[in-house]
From TrEMBL:
The lineage of its organism: Bacteria, Bacillati, Bacillota, Clostridia, Lachnospirales. This is Glycosyltransferase. Signal peptide: none annotated. InterPro entries: Glyco_trans_2-like (IPR001173), Nucleotide-diphossugar_trans (IPR029044). The keyword DNA repair does not apply. Keywords: Transferase.
Amino acid sequence: MPEQPLISVLLTNYNREQYLPYCIESVLNQTYRNLEFVIIDDGSSDNSVSVIDKYHDSRIHFYKLKENHHISYATNYGLQKLAGDYLAYMDSDDIWSVDKLEKQLTFLQKNPHYKACFTWVDLIDEQGQCINSSEKALHDLYASTTSSREEWLRYFFFEGNRLSKPSALVEINAAKETGCHTLAYVQAHDFDWWIRLTMNHSFAVIEEPLIQMRRFKNPDRNASGESPAQDTRFFNEYMMIRAHFFDNMPQELFTRAFQCCFINKSASSKEELECEKAFLLQKCVHGTEAYPIWGLYKLAELLQVPATFQALKTGYNFTPKDYYELNKTVLFYSKDRISELENIINSQRDELLIQQVHIEKQDKIISSQIDSFKQKESRAREEIAALFAHVNILQDTLNQTVTESEHLKAQLSKLYSSASWKITKPIRFLNKFFRNSFGKRSS
């Protein structure tokens, strides 16, 4: 490699003593050697510090926080300690492929217009066993592709995150420009950071799994694990991020990214674009109006300003009366409403299970048909092979017959041209004559 830039690997850890050795060694054993390994222990109460202290590698810079502050604080603390040209995030229960950094750095050096790159992932359980099949939905989610900034911003806004934090490699200047992680976020802190990174920089995805990302059966052991409390916090963080999604987005970028979703496709003035933002915020979850609260907040603000009040009225035929109708939507959920939604979700889940059973039955039928076709194909191939063998035998017999015929023709030709044949020609004539003559008399 012509250049050997320094890569700063940033690992934050809290109570992961069991998995730390796998994580640390996967970093230290990278084929790309020029790295610094900044480890922040976020006030662990287990033996994590002792595990880390056992590694005597000059590339390790170990910092111990006296108390647990959680991941955003620990990450921001670590960001201040970096000296490298690139930043690579790492989680303390995950594992890198041995050539991860080398492949990513080579890619970025060959494609300098990208300021960061991510990779695909393999999912593993507590024992390190691959669970890509059983966690297919999540595995497929992380199998993203390289897209434009505009495409990614639309996906982030309507759908959410599909990038893996420990797969990231980011140019340090782009990382510094993106800034610190927001302390208010725990589960979506990386998602918020990706959005801010994308505001100014393009990134790529290497379509190869270069990390093993661990999933736990106990949801409390994953910051992004699934449990009612975790799901609630995750959704709340996502909604807070969406509330501020457009705050620092340049007008030109906003138009390029979201014009395809505009109500007024020709919207261009500052007031019109603010109106478009309000309407987009009404359907910021999967493009539906299930959670319109931020859009209503925004519309309420716009109605108070004469310029945007007029833009709403003339460009969108939207007046306070329309707002009053929108405000009849359920925004804040009572226990009855939550129970109603849970029933809907359970009904949808039951329907999905029925569809899954049907799909499994169809799979079995298709598999049986495929097996039958394979058996028929095998028999047909055997019959064709037998026919070809018989044809070969007939061909050999024919060739032998032709050879014998040619040999007889040669012998006859030799006989007809011999002197004895010519001398005996009169005798053969007389013999034929008398045979014919006596044959006629006897008849």
